[in-house]
Amino acid sequence: MTGERLRTIGSAQPRRDGIGKVTGNARFAADVELPGMLHAKVLRSPHAHARVVRIDTSKAARLAGVHHVATRDDFAGMQPVYGWLIKDQPVLAIDKVRYVGDMIAAVAADDEATAYRALDLIDVDYELLPDLQSIEAALEADAPALFEEPPIGFVNTYGQGASAEKDPRKNVCYRFNYRTGDASVFGGCDHIFEDTFTFSRMQHYFLEPYVAVAQWQGDQVEVWSATQSPFLNRKELARVFQHPEEKITVNVLYVGGGYGAKTGCKTEPIAVLLARITARPVRLAFTMEEQLLTNTQHAAVLKLRTGVMNDGTLVARQSEILLNAGAYSDASPLVAEKAGYRIPGSYRWRHIDTQVDCVLTNQAPAGAFRGFGGTQAAWASESQIDMIARRLGIDPYALRMKNLKDLGEAFVPGESAIDSDLRLGLDLICERLDYQNRPKRRGHGIGLSVVLKDGGGVNKAAHAMVKATTNGGIIVSSATVELGQGAHTALTSMAAEVLNCEAGRVTFAAISTGSTPWEQGTFASSGTTIMGRAVVAAAAQLKEKVLAFAAEDLGCSPDQLILEDWTVRKGNEVIPLAPMIMKNFGGPGFEFTGTGYYKPRVPDDHSAPLETPVDFWEIGWGGAEVEVDQQTGQVRVLKLVVSSDFGRIVHHGACRGQDEGSAMMGLGQALFETVLYDGGRPANGTPLSYRVPLSTDLPGEFISISQEQGHGRGPFGTKGGGEGGILPVASAIANAIDDAVGVRITDLPITPEKVLAALDKQK
Amino acid sequence: MKTVSIRFNLNGRQVSHEVPANQTLIDLIRRQERLLGTKLSCDQAVCGACTVLVNGQPRAACATFAFEADAQDVVTIEGLADGDGLSAVQQAFLDNAAFQCGYCTPGMIMLAAALLQQDPDPGEAAIRRWMGANICRCTGYQMIVDAVRAAAGAKS
Amino acid sequence: MTDAAQTPGTHRNIPAFDLHRPASIAEACRLAEKFAGRCVFMGGGVDLLQNLKSGLAVENLIYLKSVPELRAIGIEDGTLRIGACVTHRDLETDPLIAVHAPALAKVWGEIGNVRIRIAGTLGGNILSGDPGYDGLPALIALNAVAVFEDTNGPRAVPAAQLAGAENAGLLTAIEVPIAPSRRFLMDRSLKPVVSVALSADVRGGAVANARVGVGCAFRIATGGPLPMAGDLTTADAAARGAAIAQEFAGQLPDPLDDVFASSGYRRRMIAVLLARQLRALAEAG
After folding, report:
1. Verdict on whether the full-model pTM lies above 0.90
2. What is the ipTM of this complex?
3. pLDDT per residue over B23-35, tens digit each?
4. Architecture of domain C11-63
5. Residues 280-299 of A with CB under 8 A from B
6. How far apart are CA B80 and CA B109, in angstroms?
7. Does domain C182-284 have CATH number 3.40.50.1000?
8. Which of C1, C2, C7, C263 to mutate to test the interface with A (most CBs of A within 10 A)?
């Protein structure tokens, strides 16, 4: 498959979204404006935990220019709570507020300035409650319960070895367990190492704000939203408003970054509520401060108990992971699944025993963040592997090489096989870093990391349509959102490949749930392989129909014809299709349509732990070369090398960009980026104070290697990507610091002060 | 005075406006001039997504009053194109896929254009320093830096 | 400043105000007197726009970038006179400063980022009150003087005493003593934890008359003369420099303790960075 020369896949072509984005003509939900549109703003809780006793909106409602002030009093006929598996987040506060930033009321006004002034006029009486600002506090026996009554929700279905429980204990909304092998093998280990790691919390910091424009006319609801999941949102809105799904339309344009945060309802419920009440279109956009309060990555505490032999053979790993879910569950149950599933890392084990708890706290909700549990797991797993190597006196490279799973080896019993050669990738990293010849100079070190995550989602179905106009223009219709990851380029390229036409003749249709075929949402690095299969199938069906049409016209069999640049070749004859179509359909011409569908199968014996076998394995290889300033504790990253295996690259720039962007997020997390809480309120929740990486933070040398190992099972041999880059970076840097000065930092970010304190302790 | 009469050059044409003193340049550009390429993001001059050129200098339009544009030369992303074609910087960003979600891209391109106007042959270090004024969350910056170098090479 | 959770900074919050664009310092001062208590000055507006977006109410805004004298840079009798509305970018690129105070140009070229340097003025920076801004610690080290004017005339305030000078009038210029032997360094590598500026005479490998400015570590930038008990030379720069720096850091009040760093770490880093700068100056000769 890999050797085969393809026309479009892998070729040098501009990204499909390129011209729009470099000219400023690309349009986003943030640009949408409807005539008569009102502007909404939200009143947010200044308290981390409180009962909402009384809300007086009368003064606000009387302000000139205010059309409505919505509160819990406007929920008649609604099911006003939403969430992924657990429906616990209220559209607006009902009985309590559970974090600083929680939404209490929403104003729709002629303009934003008026809306802001109206917020100031809303009077709220609170009854303060003790608040929980850490996982530890939330798990204490006398901790107040965030939810007095457990919210409705469900537990996912699992296969062999995996299980989950809802509300196993107070302030834990979901628990995931995975077990394989026998715990008795711990007894035969030469060493059992117990280490605890703490993972920090970042915010996605996408640049296009959360924004939705909604209108409700008669019984038709229409929403333009910066979302990754139009169909999930439509379903949620239908349930919340008790309104038929088919009468709700969600439209998505280009989205200015998401990294997971824009999955599930965020601004939509309030925008729709206000649109219904005011009978006007309503725009609700969050500021960046509000964004920082809406959804974040999960902070976590990971306790690893790992049994090994003297020769470095890994035997067993028992893990207890506590995720800080924040005040509402959002994606936490799924993040718990994935953190738990990924904690064994890229290695071979005889026994795995994992438990992950989603702990509710009075902080901003944590949800889907690039890496999705894999970042947390990688931080712990790849740090501990290194620590174990050093304790055993084995080179960290050698220990990894000894235990890495083989290409073709099942991840765990019943699971799909690893589809990358992990050792090959690690050697590529080491080569670029000249690892084997690294100078043994105190203060200078190199660290490695090899991380694995399941890719393609779970039970993720995809549906696509491909159309061809009279003149051979191709339109791909799919609900995969272009967030910047290059999905539209990948999918149009696949259609072009199947239809044997110029890539430039393929466009991606606007996404609208009324007309676009269904898919779950744009996440889990699934666009290339899952939706890719649907697009390929749709293009194939289209091709079949076109050839059948041409064959009938030419009086031959379709398999005598070759489709090429909207002509059919029959032997030496080249017959253009456009005139043939005009001849057969008359003046108006015609448009052919093909549809395609893909869904992974659930094995009859439920042997796959997550119900459907993993579609592909996303690997993140990484290595860092650092210099530690032993007087200040500052860590300078001289060289950062990251690599992913894309199986077969559809677009080089898109693949490289995803790895590098992902890796820089990891670098920020490793060294400085984090959401800081001071009591219940964010201490650095403004653009000025929340530091994200800039070009001046680039490592001295930044190298990404986009591999094409050729084992991908996706269309044309592809594997998905986009999350690999972030996974290895933090642990690679921590490992490099250990290599440089012999200190081990087990929590993030690795600040100079922490390093200096560790160096002091060493003396 | 609560409103100000301003006259300035916007993307090569003279425009006149009667603006409230407290109106920002980004508001005038997007709402009145209907040029939507300049994006509003952090609204605090931190991210630079709203970068436009005022007399060739990169400025955050969200942190510039409209009245400050009076008698100045303002260029937005829409004004960068070379007739029907793309400017060298835009072409370089396109050719080098130096963008992903595209939201920071207009501001990033304006910032880069300003650099090359003042320093036609910047090295890697100079580019990293200059481009450090704007935030990109998607690309990890190296491809942007590479595109700016390519644009410098193309122009020479 | 209102709670970030309640009133995020947005340009849609900026209140309506009356705009005044004086053409001279005298006119600006007259306006300030006329609207006393009901006006603000605007230079680059970097801080002001932030505050307006967060809800600061303003009736009259006196725009200063239209006053030519405030953008002037000149040298007279060993004093560099910088107009208060000179931008950081002006300082970074000015030909006069490139010749007579190149170290200043170098440090100013690293303030913030290029957009901030283009918009922001020296005056706005030092009057901001933001403990993280670089202007004030730098000027304290440089022994600079801020010149204010009102309808009664000019008044000079040493940089180190700027904190209490809100009502001193219109800041018109900053005066920096310069000399060929005067060196200037600023280490901002540990921001937002601490920044250290050092200025000294360096003649024939001896460092004398040193002054330090410390930023980020206290609510207000602090600093002053650096006690050295005799010139520092290349020979004893490493050892004695460290001791001098240690002593200086030790006698400072308790630095800030916050989410970014502890008080102890800040104090320690002041000593480390200052020692490195002393050594660098001594070794450069």
Report:
1. yes
2. 0.98
3. 999 999 999 999 9
4. 2-Layer Sandwich (3.30)
5. 287-288
6. 9
7. no
8. C7
